[in-house]
Design brief:
By secondary structure, the protein is α/β, with parallel strands linked by helices. The protein is built from nine helices and 14 strands. The strands form two sheets. Strands 3-4-2-1-5-6-7 form a seven-stranded mixed beta sheet, with helices on both faces. Strand 12, helix 7 and strand 13 form a beta-alpha-beta unit. Helix 3 packs parallel to helix 4, helix 5 crosses helix 9 and helix 7 packs parallel to helix 8. It is globular and about 55 Å long. The protein starts with 9 loop residues before the first strand and ends with a helix. It catalyses: succinate + ATP + CoA = succinyl-CoA + ADP + phosphate; GTP + succinate + CoA = succinyl-CoA + GDP + phosphate.
Length: 293
């Protein structure tokens, strides 16, 4: 089992013929992802050779879905065109759109996440590494060779910390790892993933990675109290961040005591989450909680 992405998923890549799209499509194919096509209206009808796989290019997401039965889109387009790309995918009825692009204006993200929700399309991102179900499928830029299938579900704002925890816990392995992105507006939230992992019979423990800024982690803690029975281990990035400064992600800004790492840690610990002070300590807490079970 997994959440959102399985070996049955059929993936279109919007922007596949660009530099980043080409590079990461090759990596996704190498990981076993069923990439069934790319989308570029100026190159429709062509094919792109990736080693031993020729991938067709379609003029639109709708054309690609009709021809292949695709149900996932990965978006590798420049920020100025991201809103149009996501709206096109939602209009076509895609089930999941993974928006890798960073630097998208917040008002565009607000518009396309709301639009996609109204169309029944799940957005992961923007400004995210995507998601991976190890051994089955990889939609985005997460390295596929640093872990294996296993019992841990991971949801993270940070791409880098996603990779680090995957590597540190590689001997246990993961059901699905979801990088939701750290922008102020994202489509899929910690809470969405917590709910999905709670319902996934093959996820035994959940790792939640947050960071300073906003109140997403506090809201996740409130959800955990009422709805999640599986053990959860957390990590919050930014304990040493200076007050009032944006740190990396556009959403990571602290004002007063609101959004601090300490406040988030306190909220999570209050509902039974073990929170590590470093990624390595977090991994050790995961191992301890699994041993307890």
């Amino acid at each position: 089992m997994a959440i959102y992405l399985t070996k049955e998923s059929k993936v279109l890549v919007q922007g596949m013929t660009g530099g980043e799209g080409m590079k990461h499509t090759r990596r996704m194919l190498a990981a076993g992802t069923n990439v069934v096509g790319g989308v570029n209206p100026r190159k429709a009808g062509r094919t792109v050779d990736f080693d031993d796989r020729a991938v067709p290019v379609f003029g639109s997401v709708a054309d690609g879905m009709r021809a292949t039965g695709a149900d996932v889109s990965v978006v590798f387009v420049p920020p100025a065109f991201a809103k149009t790309a996501v709206v096109e995918a939602a209009d076509a009825g895609i089930g999941l759109a993974v928006v890798i692009t960073e630097g998208i204006p917040v008002h565009d993200s607000v518009a396309f996440t709301a639009y996609a929700e109204g169309k029944g399309t799940r957005i992961v991102g923007p400004n995210c590494p995507g998601l991976i179900t190890p051994g089955q499928s990889n939609a985005g830029i997460i390295p596929a060779d640093i872990t294996k299938p296993g019992r841990i579900g991971l949801v993270s704002k940070s791409g880098t910390l996603t990779y680090q925890l995957m590597y540190e816990l590689r001997d246990i392995g993961f059901s699905t790892c979801v990088g939701i992105g750290g922008d102020p507006v994202v489509g899929t939230t910690h809470i969405d993933c917590l709910a999905a992992f709670q319902d996934d019979p093959d996820t035994e423990l959940i790792v939640l990675i947050g960071e300073i800024g906003g109140d997403a982690e506090e809201r996740a803690a409130a959800y955990l109290r009422e709805h999640v029975t599986k053990p959860v281990v957390g990590y919050i990035a930014g304990f040493t961040a200076p007050e009032g400064k944006t740190m990396g992600h556009a959403g990571a800004i602290v004002s007063g005591s609101s959004g601090t790492a300490a406040a988030k840690k306190k909220a999570l610990e209050a509902v039974g989450v073990s929170v590590g002070s470093t990624p390595t300590e977090t991994a050790k807490l995961v191992l301890a909680r699994l041993e307890d079970r």
